[in-house]
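Data availability (excerpt). The following record was deposited with the supplementary files.
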Amino acid sequence: MRAPRVAAAFACGGLLALAGALMQTLFRNPLAEPYLLGVSGGAGLLALLGMAAGLAWPWISALAFAGSLLALGLAAALGGRLLARDHTPLLLAGVMLAAGFGALIALVLSVTPAERLPGMLFFLMGDLAWTAQPTLLWAALLLAVAAALGLSKRLDVLQLSPLKAASLGVAVAPTRWILFALAGLCTSLVVAQAGSIGFVGLMVPHALRRIGLAGHRMLLPAAALAGGSLLVLADALARTLIAPRELPVGVLTAMLGVPLMLWLLRRP
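Predicted structure:
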């Protein structure tokens, strides 16, 4: 009974942490995270509209995936034109899209009948109760890790500076587009299956870098393993702390992650 949910939790955590590591390399910023491009906002908006209309979970999951792809497409259209030279327009486009989607989500929540609000809030905070595709998630995780490892040497050089990477023969623009697409697809799949689970994609790769894993050949698989383990632990606590009631798993990831991050930041 527990195995499918545990397997799905590990795969979701691994995908989020891997996407976070790729986003931090793409933007050369340790505070970048998978939802930076408005993916969770686009997915949440369409999913909430489906919930408000009373649709079944498979349709809500499909709407969430479509919304996340819509957000990625808008971010690429608005800010990706100069990605070969500067990632700042893409970053700004993602921030603006996230703010816009957040406003629309607040509007939907404010006009939705009260009896539908708990399910909506659980989705927005992350909920593994309805995750029914562990095989799909695991296949995506293995393929994503393999694809990211194939880019590991280029990512090590790209992290220095785009100009230095270009001088050493790295195709900067195609590599950045691959990072954008791979991180976006990983995040979209997780949001479609489990909602917006926060903090895993930000904290795990940043923590691994803080303890010395700088090379991507070690960082990327380590991020997948650590992210998966963290989400399995958080989901177990979410199910048992106030049993028989259940907490949103995103609340537990933040409760576990914030003290760890503060401890890491205090280290020299």
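Summary of structural features: The first helix runs from residue 3 to 27.
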